[in-house]
């Protein structure tokens, strides 16, 4: 291939001839008399920038972006690294890494088909070399690998317009995700990065010069990709980086925290929240006890506010796992978490209420009785409101709490406090809820109390009936007051006098 390239040049161009000869001579000297050549014994291989690559000197990995046919003539197949002598493998690896920095337009599958195929085969050869390496990677290889990975992965993500669907979780779930047309090459790059990070031949102290803060931040930016396959790779890679580079752990947690802040308080749109929470779930699981103050602040300032966005269904399972991990790590956090969730409780979003009730059940399963007593009043005040929801799934989910043995035991131990809170809501359902299943479940819950603690149930029913009579009397009194006001206004409307309320007229609180 290279003979054909250089054979087109005329011998009369002496300056070019000297330049080529000088380069050949330099390569042969650096390689101790043996040039890296293909199987046909052609000219020494040049890098994608046209410069010969040696083994002894540190190379400058130059950015090479394809521009139609400008670079195509330099892009040819190279011999396999495993077929080369050990002394020449590193030289060929560097050439291939530099060549793979070349970028192609994958939105048009008909352009540069030959070069794309060669690049894919070359990257697979590099991946095989990294997988089978049995010696520590030198700095020039580490630099070359991270440079090639950066050139291929770090790009501007193309996010299609959503036409007013940004905050609607159900619309986002129904929309088909964007599949990156470059994925056939990108997944090889991700495999290379993953194997490079977790390889025992990668020295963390050396690699952190290139896998630095900027590298990690740019990886985090890619989590907003709509391609689920890419986010899955990113999740695994970032977790491996967190495990290998211990010095970066606080930085990674802080950087993820910043992504969450922007999502909660600014955009409410990000494709990778679920994957980031999966990483944090593993991190939280490994927290040492007692928990540091910074971890508790992360819970209060980030994880609990993540219940606010309307698209919570996209990541609720992972969020619930993280929250439960905190309760299991420190039982005293249960009260803080439950009160925080109740503060974020939705008013008009019924699917979100169902999610919250499921999460509440998981938290209560991990809550100790002493902590449960601190927050049982706000819990069952909210549960009672859910009983009377006109959305039958919300009411059913709240009533299903009694099917959980752990939750039922907590309720039974504190029935003197809980029954007076929920009994009016149960009676309201039994006497008037439109859904037969909700009425039946309400009756079953009431029956559990009446059979287990008949005396307490009778006492609460008596109190409920008395309160009901007082409420009816209050409503009658209020109606009489409004009727009197109406009569006074009617008498004075024709005279043009200002209508004044008598100071003796008692003011009734609004319902």
Tell me what the structure shows.
The protein is mainly α and 511 residues long. It has a domain at 345-489. Helix content is 62%, strand content 0%. Helix 3 (86-99) packs across helix 4. The protein is elongated, with a radius of gyration of 35 Å. The N and C termini lie far apart (88 Å). The relative contact order is 0.04.
Query: What's the order of the H and E elements?
Result: HHHHHHHHHHHHHHHHHHHHHH
In which range does the helix fraction lie?
55-70%
Strand content: under 5%
How many DSSP E strands?
A: 0
Shape descriptor reads elongated
Major sheet description: none
How far from one another are the termini?
A: 88 Å
Kindly name the structural category: mainly alpha
Structure annotation, total helices: 22
List unreliable stretches of 5+ residues. Answer: 1-73, 162-172
Mean pLDDT: 82
Summary?
The chain is built from 22 helices and no strands. With about 500 residues, it is mainly alpha-helical. The chain has a domain at about 345-490.
Q: Keyphrases for this structure?
A:
single chain; 511 residues; mainly alpha; 22 helices; 0% strand; disordered N terminus; PP2A_B56; protein phosphatase regulator activity
Write the layout of secondary structure elements.
Layout (H helix, E strand, L loop, with lengths): L1 H6 L6 H17 L55 H14 L13 H20 L6 H15 L15 H6 L8 H16 L5 H4 L5 H9 L6 H17 L4 H19 L5 H13 L7 H11 L12 H14 L4 H10 L6 H16 L3 H19 L4 H8 L5 H9 L1 H18 L3 H17 L1 H39 L19
